[in-house]
Design the sequence.
């Protein structure tokens, strides 16, 4: 089966040497046009990541722009109908699990059950220090947070007792409307995949090559429905290189991807929209990768 396609959302995050110049001054209107087009064309999900504040020394590696996912998705939920909204990723250590359950459970309700909760344990110590969050035990703390989230996301009166988090006798209203909100784990290590397989519903790594991903995936028995989100080995060009694009999506699928993010080189909003259209047409029956 061919992998589905998603949108590695431009504008909301700008990485050095990877973003188009037009994104620098783009507004919510440009972003909305992308979301509406992706929704109409059948893309699986949009992404938006989280950072509170980044050290200037990190700007060349991580970029400096990160739109807040809750505000961004709250707006886009009203302008779309079926495309899912994936945090990619929230840093677990920055929030109490019930804070996530309330804020993003509300988003799930607002969007009609379209939330995908992508999470990670984080790696930027300066940001942890800035908000007074513990850093050294972020791995086991994140594991406990994942268990607490699974116990609380869709439950108006959640109860949980773990190593770091414990709660009961509290009401969270509204909560998520999906019976089981998909939780994906991001990261770039084998440990992140183990965490995903053990505690979540999918793995959305970054900076992990396709061969490495396939090797790691081969070490686990993945249950049915487990999602693996792997970008293509290089940016796609479905307009001028349709065959190479088709092969690149198929290659990601052969290495374990169930969903392939659309990553393009683009020179304008219209060029980006044209790429979305061309890739969707390649993926239609009779032209599917």
Sequence:
């Amino acid at each position: 089966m061919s992998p589905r396609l998603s949108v590695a959302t431009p504008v909301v995050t700008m990485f050095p040497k990877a973003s188009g110049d037009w994104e620098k001054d783009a507004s919510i209107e440009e972003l909305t046009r992308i979301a509406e087009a992706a929704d109409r064309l059948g893309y699986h999900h949009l992404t938006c990541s989280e950072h509170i504040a980044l050290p200037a020394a990190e700007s060349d590696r991580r970029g400096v722009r990160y739109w807040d996912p809750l505000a961004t998705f709250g707006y886009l939920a009203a302008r779309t109908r079926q495309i899912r909204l994936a945090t990619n990723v929230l840093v677990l250590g920055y929030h109490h699990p019930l804070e996530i359950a309330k804020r993003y459970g509300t988003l799930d309700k607002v969007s009609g059950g379209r939330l995908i909760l992508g999470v990670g344990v984080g790696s930027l110590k300066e940001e942890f220090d800035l908000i007074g969050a513990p850093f050294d035990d972020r791995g086991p703390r994140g594991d406990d947070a994942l268990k607490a989230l699974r116990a609380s996301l869709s439950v108006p009166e959640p109860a949980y007792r773990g190593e770091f988090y414990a709660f009961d006798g509290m009401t969270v209203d509204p909560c998520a409307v999906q019976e089981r909100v998909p939780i994906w784990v991001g990261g770039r290590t084998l440990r992140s995949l183990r965490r995903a397989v053990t505690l979540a519903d999918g793995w959305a790594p970054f900076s992990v090559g396709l061969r490495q991903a396939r090797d790691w995936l081969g070490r686990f028995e993945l249950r049915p429905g487990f999602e693996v989100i792997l970008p293509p080995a290089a940016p796609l060009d479905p307009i001028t290189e349709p065959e190479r694009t088709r092969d690149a999506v198929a290659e990601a699928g052969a290495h374990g991807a169930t969903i392939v993010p659309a990553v393009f080189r683009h020179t304008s909003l219209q060029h980006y929209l044209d790429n979305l259209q061309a890739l969707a047409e390649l993926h239609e029956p009779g032209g599917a990768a």
Summary: The domain at 4-225 is CATH 3.20.20.30 (TIM Barrel). The chain has one domain: 4-225. The radius of gyration is 19 Å. The first strand starts at residue 4 and ends at 7.
